[in-house]
Please model this.
Amino acid sequence: MSLFKRKTKLSEHTGVERFNLKFLIGGTGFIVLLLIAIFARQLAPRDPIAKFAESQAPSLGKNHLYLKNLSSEPVNIDELRIKIWYRGYKDEANEIILFRNAALQPGEQYNQTFKIRDIGNNGSINVKLTTIAGSDINLAYRFNCRIEDTGNNDGLLSSDLKMESFKNILFIKSGNSACEDYLPRHVFFGDYQGCKIVDHLRGHYILGTDSFERDIISRLIYATQPTILVALCAMIVSLLIGVPIGFLSGYFGGTTDKLLMRVSDTISAFPRFFLIISIVALWGQNILLITIAIGITGWMEPARFINVKVKTLIEQDYILSAVSTGRIWWRIMYHDLLPNILPHILVLAAYGASSAILLESTLSYINFGVREPLPSWGNMLANAFGTGAGSTGLERLWQVLFPGLAISIAVLMFNFLGDGVQKSIGNEDE
Amino acid sequence: MSELLRIEDFSFSYRHRNTTISILKKLDILIFPGEVVGLVGESGSGKSTLAKAILRIPDFKYEVSYKGSIYLNGNDLMQLNDTQLDRIRGNEISIIFQDPLSYLNPMFTIHRQIKEVLKHHEIANGIVADEMIRRCLLNVSFNYPDRIMRSYPFELSGGMRQRIMICMAMITRPKLLIADEVTSSLDALIEKEILDNINRLCSDYGTSVLLISHNLPTILKYANRIAIIYFGHIVEIVHVNNAQKGARHPYTKALFSCALAKVKDGVFPFIEGSIPKPHDVIVGCPFHLRNCPRAIDACRTTLPEMESYDEGSFRCHNPYPVEG
Model:
């Protein structure tokens, strides 16, 4: 059996694994979150603030138009053109003729792809649809575009037939059951009965829309920005306060230690959430202040931890050796203590960031944090219970599910990172 | 000849849970330039404490109080503030500790640790410092100093680490080197190498050494004078040539007979009892408790004063007579 002797790793004896699974998962999760936050604009399929109707304006690049004849008779269309002008650049209107002198047979579908050039202001493009038919008010309202008579079809303009023929042409994404394939998969909310056209189908609504008809996936993606920003900055603020205090009190001991630790105890005695809300209530509600509030109420734990660490480290002989070679106190802190404490600071940073994410979400949930309409996981949760939220439990669950999952995953990733760093420096017991 | 270091009526105590524990009591030692003074005593007698107290290192950890004074070239070390003291530590007085592994910072390479000393005392920087370190490492018999400079403490053996410590202490060319039990964790062969290194470097640089050890043969080999410390008192200071036969104090005699004697009838000679605990309060001479062969009534009531004679000094009511 000795042939199959189990190989033993060094890690089995020391408990130190430089790249353990938790560290890898947590680190990857953190990097992914960071990348999502940085490239949110590129990743999000839609504007997170724009409501469904507004977001239907054709976007830059490829756009699709679908037309289908639902009537039993062929429909003649003299001309169908899309006139696009750019807000503020009316002179540069771009007219695309899609359809001319054509007849749509019953059940026939017409697909047309057209491109929109970029001449500046993305997201504020108006579309003008020109058909043989008259205006459809609903259509214009819904999609921020106008249907206008071009005046080329004199004989048809005043007649009722025009309207009828227009109605018989179904623009995809209408409320009609015939077109359900093109509907966003999970849209639970909003009244689409009046919608008859969706000329912009650059990707479906992957997770549907919320109670304000805003795209959930875009909001989820954009919400990583305030979350990561608050988490990292608040953690840095709390470490910037806590670590020096822990260092000084641990190093000098005696009265300094007692004084600083009593101060930290006193602040710790107050509920942290109460302190944060007080600060936000006093000085206003913006993301900078939330960050600072979470930061300056979170320094006590790092301070205490670093204090204990420094106290045990200065018992080490090499610190005495440094003293005996005449090294000055701040040099000992920087040169001898800090490198030994740095891994522990990393652990504190990871845990601090995870608690900051939770706090930020909670604040946003009670509308003390990131304010509507800017997205944050917390206020996305809150939307599920606000006015206009869905009437059924499933509808509410749908809105709670994704931001809730996002918060859990983000917190889990930071906790994994903390655990992983702790394991890789070999003190899992702490 | 004017002395380099004068320890005068020096007492040291620290506070522990509202009680004052006195470790060193009224020490008087002189160290002359270029001289090697051996400090011998049992474990717990205060040897290491004296070594650290000279540089006021215990300040760093404990609540301590000093009485008396230690003069280095006429400057009282006890009166200096921290900044002045930092200039003396490692520059004019260096210290080498007992366990070389724990006294080297595990996070840094040897090169960086030694260079830090040079940088702090503004002796050298950059390439000059590197060259100094290389030469110093060659001086402490490293054949490949560049490899040593790149390595971390845990990559080196005990003897190598101790030589690194010597290099770190001697690179500033101090006036006094305190060697606190430098070889107690090493074997006899390495011990000789280490002490030879210290001896050679110190005689090259004209550095005085306070050589602390519990190993009497070592002290006899390298020291010029020997100070024997017992329970925080210096009981005798004697010249090394005179030490074995001319010792006056019974404790010195007992120590030498234990350390240098062969095993007789299967029994190793030893001093009965053990050294008193630091917080014990003892009236009279502390050695009378251990069946001092020359104890008299005065020993139980009063502590003897330091008495000088032409070859040394001792602290005893009833010393052995001068031989010959």
In short: The CA atoms of residues 268 and 407 of chain A lie 25 Å apart. The first helix of chain A runs from residue 10 to 14. Chain A touches chain B through 22 residues (CB under 8 Å). Residues 17-41+216-424 of chain A form a domain with the MetI-like fold fold (CATH 1.10.3720.10).
